Amino acid sequence: MTYPATTGEFSGAPGPDPHHERSAVIDLDAIRHNVRRLAAAASPAKVMAVVKADAYGHGAVPVARAAIEAGASWLGVAHISEALALRAAGIDAPLLAWLHTVDSNFGAAVAAGVDIGCSGWELDRIVAAAREQERPARVHLKVDTGLGRNGATLDTWDQLVGEAMDYQDQGLLRVVGIFSHLAVADEPDRPETDQQLAAFREALAVAEDAGVDPEVRHLANTPATLSRPDTHFDLVRAGLGIYGLSPFEGQTSAELGLRPAMTFRTRVSQCKEVPDGQGVSYGLRYHTTGRSTLALIPVGYADGIPRIATGGPVRVAGHTYPVVGRIAMDQMVIDLGDTGPAGAALLGAEAVLFGSGDDGGPTADDWARAAGTINYEIVTRISPRVPRRFINEQDTSGGRHAAALQTGGAA
């Protein structure tokens, strides 16, 4: 819609595409490539593509479809609400949700055929939902092998297994899986992974003695999928890797055979020549050191860029410039140097904050270093105000759509 300011009237004709102003471009072929790479590493175990948190900011529904097309056998999310959104989109693959509160809608999960992770306290609520729905619940029992978050402790594990099997004998649930989560698999030399693996094997033995015959046993995350085949069991839960990012310090995505799927880009919104000593942004922590051209980049912390990440890289016209001065809510500044009148020509030029890095440009890892955080956070925090643009989306005839546009984050 376009809204003429002078008349207050509006036209139904399409206006300029907001994706041209700023967008997170998601390459679904990169998602497919990464799933195939992880499937090869995990084989003969199957792959669960973890699409929680709107697929780490990439768009849960398109990413889930691409992952299944590439061979993922399962999908994983944190919340039941996330699982129900996938079901509402027509995705019927095996699907596990594992993080709950006392207000979680277990009845809706059972009705939709969503598998439910259970650490202990949820069991009676899950059974009540199964009775209400007149349908057995599908449950994955979780044991805490050392991470210290959810999951039954080893001391209470046998009780949980026994109670679950009693309910299974009554036809109220099926123990589909047994799982745990690793704490330090991204640091391959740490001994705690061996300790967790031993604890998981002990928990499996207890469950087997109680008569549990699970469809899947799963422990490995992305780093363990790539570095610890002894943790693969029947299924690996791949999160970060399917988005093409490396979980290891000192190893790049390319070295692992992965392709980053998200490119965050916008356009230069102003270029102006300023004198020596010009202050930049709130607090005036940066001043130019000579005549210079400042370029305004129209994204900020409301778009998900960490406010702390001054120095983060932005690539414009084949050159990479660090952000100078404080990052504001909606904008940031790069210093192009003494370009003279030529700097004005960059008005409207594409500005890439991060992408694949294939052309030597910046990556999510570069922004993570600037912000003192991890690449997981950089992609996941890109806000719904940044439209997602999907490329290489497969159509129902088996071809490819060049691009699919989605405003305000992913469905």
Class per helix and strand makeup: alpha/beta
CATH superfamily of the largest domain: Alanine racemase
Span between termini: 21 Å
- CATH topology term of the largest domain: TIM Barrel
* Beta-strand content estimate: 15-25%
CATH architecture descriptor name of the largest domain = Alpha-Beta Barrel
Read across the widest sheet, the strand sequence of neighbours is 11-14-17-16-15-18-10-1-19-20
Average pLDDT metric: 93
Main beta sheet strand tally, sense and closure: 10 strands, mixed
Basic shape: elongated
Number of DSSP strands?
20
Number of helices: 12
Residue share in helix? 25-40%
**Alpha-carbon Rg, integer:** 24 Å
Q: Give the CATH level 1 class of the largest domain.
A: Alpha Beta
Number of domains: 2
Low-confidence stretches: 1-7, 407-411
Care to give the gist of this entry?
28% of the residues lie in helices and 23% in strands.
Folded structure, characterized:
Helix 2 (about 30-40) packs across helix 4 and helix 8 runs parallel beside helix 9. The chain has a ten-stranded mixed β-sheet with strand order 11-14-17-16-15-18-10-1-19-20. It has helices at about 20, 30-40, 50-55, 60-70, 80-90, 105-110, 125-135, 155-170, 190-210, 220-225, 365-370, 375-380; strands at about 20-25, 45-50, 75, 95, 115-120, 135-140, 175-180, 215-220, 235-240, 260-265, 270-275, 280, 285, 290-295, 315, 320-325, 330-335, 350-355, 390-395, 400-405. It is about 30% helix and about 25% strand. By secondary structure, the chain is an alpha/beta fold. It is elongated.
